[in-house]
């Protein structure tokens, strides 16, 4: 039996603990916590990825859904979940972009295999995620921090030594802004950091279309090629090394 005094002391003690936990929770000081809004957002990303791979969505439909979802992101919560602060402590390369992984396995409600690849890209000022396109891949960026000069192109033709491309997007991107890629729309991207450091959230879904025989991976090119009629450009294919030498 405990005295009334002991009972009250315990009650106050646990009330303090509870309010402390609540404070920590609301400020998201727990290492791996994720608020329900971002959990639900991630779960939606998993869902549309599954639909793309299961061919319930075309790549263009997926792109629209991904953009709608990206527009609704709670950027602060996303940065916390993927631990942007840890990425910010790392050294950035003198050419090209750094790629940092992050762990979603502690986010409640997500399957062990989320179905998509994911990373944070980071560049120093003046450095670039160099111009490249993708085959059989849908992918999307959200600017996390800093400013970028982002360019996209449609891949209109694929030839032996070059691609015929058409500029579609050329503008400044700020935190919270987004862009997406599929084989049929805005297939090529190139992002140059214009602030001291700059960070991008990336999700990619590879091999969604069994009819596309091209291998996945990046296809490097020089978008400043010969100008053709109708605003098109003949963009020579490049090696990763040459592309980084010129644009990294
Ligand atoms: Fe890419």
Could you characterize the architecture of this molecule?
With 248 residues, the protein is α+β, with helices and mostly antiparallel strands. The chain has two domains: 1-29; 31-247, Jelly Rolls, CATH 2.60.120.10. Helices cover 30% and strands 32% of the residues. The chain has six helices and twelve strands. The chain has helices spanning 4-26, 36-53, 59-71, 75-81, 84-88, 240-247, and strands spanning 98-100, 117-124, 128-134, 137-145, 148-158, 162-173, 178-181, 188-193, 197-206, 218-220, 226-227, 233-236. The strands form two sheets. It has a seven-stranded antiparallel β-sheet with strand order 10-3-8-5-6-12-11. β5 and β6 form a beta hairpin. It is elongated.
Considering the chains and any ligands shown, give keywords for the structure.
single chain, 248 residues, alpha+beta, Jelly Rolls, 2 domains, five-stranded antiparallel sheet, 12 strands, elongated, binds fe (ii) ion
What's the structural blueprint in terms of helices and strands?
Layout: H1 4-26, H2 36-53, H3 59-71, H4 75-81, H5 84-88, E1 98-100, E2 117-124, E3 128-134, E4 137-145, E5 148-158, E6 162-173, E7 178-181, E8 188-193, E9 197-206, E10 218-220, E11 226-227, E12 233-236, H6 240-247
Antiparallel strand pairs: 1-2, 2-9, 3-8, 3-10, 4-7, 4-9, 5-6, 5-8, 6-12, 11-12
Helix pairs in contact: 2-3
